[in-house]
Amino acid sequence: MKSATTFLMFQGQANEAIEQYQQWFTDLEVASLSYTENSQQVAMAVLHLKGLKLMVNDSVIQHNFTFTPSTSIFIECDSEEEISYLVTHILEGGLALMPLDNYGFSKKFAWIQDRFGVSWQLSYN
């Protein structure tokens, strides 16, 4: 086995999502980004976030499915300010599956879905 990577498939919103993620996560690195011919659809992008490699694309085929909250990206935040910032911004147009709170297993925790449908678990201890 050569590698294992998280893959996020969008349907026309990949470029917008990448730009949004760069605003939320200032240390997000776009390692590569290519577009389909004659469009702004992302053929393939490779992102790096805190050691996590993400592959991102826009599907050329329309599917009857999208992201599910049961698969999420888990982020361990460095400070209360960081988790508050991320929760506030990711929730713009998104959905709180578990609002920011102390659930006993984490001093501050939130499970939220961004406006693209991608789920994020944010934790601060």
From TrEMBL:
Q: Please name the Pfam families in this protein's record.
A: 3-dmu-9_3-mt (PF06983)
Q: Which residues cross the membrane?
A: none
**Lineage: superkingdom:** Bacteria
**Ranges of residues in domain PhnB-like:** 4-122
Listed InterPro entries? 3_dmu_93_MTrfase (IPR009725), Glyas_Bleomycin-R_OHBP_Dase (IPR029068), PhnB-like (IPR028973)
PANTHER family recorded: PHNB-LIKE DOMAIN-CONTAINING PROTEIN, PROTEIN YJDN-RELATED
| Name of this protein | VOC family protein
Q: What is the lineage of its organism?
A: Bacteria, Bacillati, Bacillota, Bacilli, Bacillales
